Amino acid sequence: MKKYAIYIAILVVGLLLGKFFLGNSSTDNSSKNQTNETVEEHWTCSMHPQIDMPQPGQCPICGMDLILAEVTTDGLKANQFKLSSNALALANIQTTIIGTASSASSGVKLSGKIVENERNMAIQTAHFGGRIEKLYINSEGEKVKRGQLLARIYSPELFAAQQELLTAVLLKESQPALYKAVRGKLKLWKLSDKQINSIEASKKPISNFPIYANVSGIVTEKMVEEGNHVTEGAPLLKITNLNTVWGNFDVYENQIAQFKKGQEILITTNAYPTKKFKAKVSFIDPILDTKTRTVKLRAVLNNKQRIFKPGMFIEGKITGSKSVNKDAISVPTTAVLWTGKRSVVYVKSNPNEPVFEMREVTLGSKLGENYEVVEGLENGEEIVSNGTFTVDAAAQLQGKKSMMNKEGGKTTTGHEGHLGIQTNTNNNIKEDAMVMIDKSKINSTFKQQLGKVVAGYILLKNALVEDNMNMAQKEAQQVKKALEKVDMTLLKGDAHNVWMKFLKPIKENLSKVQNALEIKSQRAAFLIVGKQLSKGIETFGIQTENDQPLYLEFCPMTDNNNGGFWLSYDKEIKNPFFGKAMLSCGEVKATY
């Protein structure tokens, strides 16, 4: 009996201990589950993704019902992504806290060109037909004065008319009407009374009749040569008075509202970079150029000292231009990426960590080195102002929304080697490794060789600017030769593999430039060459001859309004994708 009592006591103690431990475990699990299920919710607007609310409700901008934003396992929202501190340092990514447009506006800069003042331009014509026996103007640029002898012309008609005059002089007393009619006929050919009297006094017709300058100025165009036959009214020379010239500037469609006649404009030139010249806006073209989407703004410049030369590029700055929208926000031009009609910036979502997300914005006017943003951003937000292309590439690699990938999803850009992003074996880079390429450790000889490739690329670009298809084919061949001289053994490991990714499309599209049957196809291939070459420069760095600065330039209308980039030694925009048809479309986006 005693034995059974002991067993019962042990059983009771076991049950009590089991209840104690199991109960605590259940409580712990329940607590853990409850903790895991307590995840901070984010509610946003499908039309305004910048809205981030802790609870459901209505969008404060458009009034639509908020939707639950996706949150990843690392606490980031669906389209947020994070960069490592090393990647931030290597790419020199900088951010700016944005403010109102009026506080950032320091004036509007315009690109322009010096041209002749058309009001001071004259065409010297032949008032009678004949053969140019002697031309006293040897070249364009010569200075002439009113009354100066320009040429001598033999005219059979004029010779016969002079003989008629000499006959009429003999009949002057008996037939005064005939005499008067013959003199009048000569005056119709612009002969002066002095010249007619001289013919009467000499009693001999002039065989090679002199042509004198009607105005003073500079010969800006020579239209005939000695020995040419000309008809009555044919142009001989264009003579321009350069005491005043015009400064013509291109104003983009979204800037028109900021300008008016009488505004003061400060003008600088490459020839005299330390001097500033004041002028006033005298004319704004009422008709928009549908090809370039610009209008012409004109200023008249005093040029008595011959400082300004027709054809010279100039830059104008109009101070005091303010945003037409007082509530607009201002962002640096370097912060904005364009792709067709879309404009995007990257916002730093967390002030304490390098977390970013893409934001589509609506741009207003360009104010100096800033754009006004009328929709998409709020005052006080922090945006990427330098290194925007690198951040965009990181977004693409992580499958987030980006400039060229509106819906998100995995893609490759060629930046895998220097962004601090995990990549896979399909890219020939170590799997699950954080691959970093430090530009400072790239062999300087490789950078110099890359600089020579870019020098050839610039010549190719210049050929397309001039609409010269044959020259573009020749320059493309020279760029390929420069590529063959690049020593790839100077790059080791992952750096070598990354360069190979850039090299293949560059070579393929240079061949397309060589073999193209029309310049449009050349430009399409050139677009890809520039894209891959600029990625190579961003990744490895470059050493140009004499450390010449290199500019990355962009035109939003290229590639069917998808936008296109090119490299240039000149800060002055000369668009290779449209040539002379739209030479000034574009702006500088980065400097290497």
Record the SSE blueprint.
Blueprint: H1 2-37, E1 43-44, E2 67-68, E3 80-82, H2 85-90, E4 94-97, E5 99-100, H3 101-104, E6 108-116, E7 121-125, E8 130-135, E9 143-144, E10 149-154, H4 156-170, H5 176-188, H6 193-202, E11 208-212, E12 217-222, E13 229-230, E14 235-240, E15 244-252, E16 264-269, E17 277-284, E18 294-302, E19 313-318, E20 329-332, E21 337-339, E22 342-350, E23 355-367, E24 370-375, E25 382-386, H7 388-397, H8 444-465, H9 469-484, H10 494-515, H11 519-540, E26 551-555, H12 558-561, E27 564-568, E28 587-591
Antiparallel strand pairs: 1-2, 3-23, 4-25, 5-20, 6-15, 6-19, 7-14, 8-10, 8-13, 9-12, 10-11, 12-14, 15-18, 16-17, 16-19, 17-18, 20-24, 21-22, 22-23, 23-24, 26-27, 26-28
Describe the protein in words.
- With 592 residues, the chain is of the alpha+beta class.
- It folds into six domains: 1-38; 41-69, no CATH class; 80-105 and 325-427, conserved putative lor/sdh protein from methanococcus maripaludis s2 fold (Beta Barrel), CATH 2.40.420.20; 108-117 and 242-318, Efflux pump adaptor protein, beta barrel domain (Elongation Factor Tu (Ef-tu), domain 3), CATH 2.40.30; 119-240, RNA polymerase II/Efflux pump adaptor protein, barrel-sandwich hybrid domain (OB fold (Dihydrolipoamide Acetyltransferase, E2P)), CATH 2.40.50; 439-591, no CATH class.
- The chain has helices at 2-37, 85-90, 101-104, 156-170, 176-188, 193-202, 388-397, 444-465, 469-484, 494-515, 519-540, 558-561, and strands at 43-44, 67-68, 80-82, 94-97, 99-100, 108-116, 121-125, 130-135, 143-144, 149-154, 208-212, 217-222, 229-230, 235-240, 244-252, 264-269, 277-284, 294-302, 313-318, 329-332, 337-339, 342-350, 355-367, 370-375, 382-386, 551-555, 564-568, 587-591.
- The strands form seven sheets. Strands 3, 5, 20, 21, 22, 23 and 24 form a seven-stranded antiparallel beta sheet that branches. It has a six-stranded antiparallel beta barrel with strand order 6-15-18-17-16-19.
- A hairpin with a 2-residue loop joins strand 23 and strand 24 (370-375).
- Helix 8 runs antiparallel to helix 9 (469-484) and helix 9 (469-484) runs antiparallel to helix 10.
